[in-house]
Write a structure and sequence with these properties.
single chain; 157 residues; alpha+beta; Beta-Lactamase; 6 strands; 33% helix; binds methionine sulfoxide
Length: 157
């Protein structure tokens, strides 16, 4: 079934409440995880228009993250455990907010345009199975409000 998503104006919290409700409704109609990851990327892109929004999934065969559904320019396909912001969020099993990627030791620059980012791990029984990575072209884009809502949104998967 085709869906329309109309971006919402308001405070950041109001925008997230709207996105969360839209994502809940959309995901209730579909059980396929890849499809749902893809639509979460699309909803976030439509609402916030960040530079890059995407998932990396854990590939246990070689202990890397592998690129999943995303919105934005082409990106690195593999990230080793513990490397970059994504690999670090995976290793620590916790959300990482980076206000300036140039200050993050070992940051993997898929694009020189990226200035700040947030990476949110997706867990099942305390084990990380994927991460949501969002990159912004401006410094210090993400804060604890983003963390709270993005953790709730990926919790729908
Ligand atoms: N910035 C990430 C790499 C992924 S790309 O930005 C899409 C990192 O250091 O983990």
């Amino acid at each position: 079934m085709a869906e329309d998503f109309i971006p919402f104006s308001g405070s950041k919290q109001e925008q997230y409440e709207y996105v969360l409700a839209q994502a809940e409704a959309l995901l209730a109609q579909e059980t396929n995880t890849i499809a749902n990851m893809a639509n979460i990327c699309a909803i976030l892109k439509e609402q916030f228009n960040w530079f890059w929004i995407g998932f990396y999934s854990v590939d246990q065969t070689n202990n890397t993250l592998v690129l999943g559904p995303f919105q934005g320019p082409i990106a690195c396909t593999r990230i080793p455990h513990g490397k970059g912001v994504c690999g670090t969020a995976w290793a620590k099993a916790e959300t990482i907010i980076v206000k300036d990627v140039h200050q993050f030791e070992g940051h993997i620059a898929c694009s020189s345009l990226s200035q700040s980012e947030i990476v949110v791990p997706l867990k099942k029984d305390d084990t990380v199975w994927a991460v949501l990575d969002i990159d912004s072209e401006t410094l210090a884009t993400f804060d604890l409000i983003d963390q709270e809502y993005l953790e709730r949104i990926v919790g729908l998967l």
